[in-house]
């Protein structure tokens, strides 16, 4: 169990950085393909902010869902090519990996069956559930991901309010081999106090394996600087993470 009340006296004078994390495993930086960066100008501004934050690698995870964002491997890779061109043109010290945030629906089941997935680091499939109600596809999706040899990585479990106050639901997912990804914005109150509390509880249990910004624009990346004043920031830097580059 981790303690969340350690503070370093130098934290007030040390410039804020996320260099301990090394890579961002959840963001919407690719231009014009979901509700993230609408164009290459915003993408470039986000890339430049990543450099300032000390991030070395970005895993772009645009939404993939049947109703709103009908992205495919082809649309994602095309947008990633544009982003890589920006990185090269502006000589930014960043590496970009193209992946996706898959929505738990029937379309996702089909993509798994047809091997139409973009895993993170060749191993992790980032997916999200509905914010309104538990998914009817949950257990089936987890099994199908694992049958393909991948590890299911659940995006922002702290944001599913129907699981708040129900630790057995989280434990059940962990028992099934699901890895958890924390939205750092949850810890600065971006989604509300309930989400912040849930994130702290999951951290205390040591349930998170990966971090992500879930940034949809420059304002989200700038908001992350508030983490430097958070009493949990020192603990964040000590957690074992998949994000770190080998």
From TrEMBL:
Highest taxon of the lineage: Bacteria
Alphabetized UniProt keyword annotations: Hydrolase
Gene3D superfamilies: Metal-dependent hydrolases (3.20.20.140)
Pfam family membership, one: CpsB_CapC
EC number(s) on file: 3.1.3.48
GO MF entries: manganese ion binding; protein tyrosine phosphatase activity
Record's catalysed reaction(s): O-phospho-L-tyrosyl-[protein] + H2O = L-tyrosyl-[protein] + phosphate
InterPro entries: Caps_polysacc_synth_CpsB/CapC (IPR016667), Pol/histidinol_Pase-like (IPR016195)
Matches recorded under PANTHER family: TYROSINE-PROTEIN PHOSPHATASE YWQE (PTHR39181)
Family in the record: Belongs to the metallo-dependent hydrolases superfamily. CpsB/CapC family.
Protein name, entry field: protein-tyrosine-phosphatase
Organism: Runella defluvii
Classification lineage: Bacteria, Pseudomonadati, Bacteroidota, Cytophagia, Cytophagales
